[in-house]
Amino acid sequence: QAINPKFPTKKADRNGWRFGSSIDKHSTFDEHMDKMLEIIEQKIDLFEPLCDKYYCEFSCALFIRYDNGESTPWLHLNSRYNKVLKLLNIEFDLDIYCLPNTNT
Fold first, then answer.
1. Spatial distance between the Cα atoms of 99 and 87, rounded to a whole number of angstroms
2. pLDDT at 97 over 80
């Protein structure tokens, strides 16, 4: 795809699409993943040819605050996640960021 319509011969090296869960950003990781899977499972027939042709991944960022009195968060990817990842050959990328508590 052209980077700029004024320069149609200059092509982008990489291109992509992004979509999110559209739920509150403070929802749990599981709630976000459940919503994403709900979206994908309802349109699995549309995702299959895209994932066959292009590189696809779940790219997630988990932000953890420390020194705030809360326990360590957990995440669990059950067979539902594994089934969709395997069916569509989707990579799973999780970045974890540990940040200091800002409410001190």
1. 35
2. yes
